[in-house]
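User: Please predict the structure of the protein below. I'd like the answer in structure-token form so I can feed it into my own downstream comparison script.

Assistant: Understood. Taking the following sequence of 106 residues as input:
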Amino acid sequence: YLLAMFLGGAYQEILGDLHNLFGDTNAVHVRLEEYGHSVSNVIKGDAIDEVLRYLQYDPEEMVERVRKQAERALQAGRMDLEQLRMFMQHYEKALRGYTYLKGPEE
């Protein structure tokens, strides 16, 4: 017999509590089958922009403010157009991303 215990339920909810500003973690429902196991449901955790909205920040306004600052840097010669484009692309993608660490492929 194999016995497995997983930290779930209350522990997971505490991890997902906004006291740490990370929000809900990803979760999966795993079913034990006759010949192994299967994942029956995947529940996505919070994205950064969702947590920001909960805290009364407006991610779209944040993007516009950062864009204006980046455009000023472009005009002052502190970055070129390609750097500005890449910076904004990464910033916007980060706001839509998961609040916890991700692997390089994600």
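That's the full token string. Residues 59-75 form the longest helix (17 residues).
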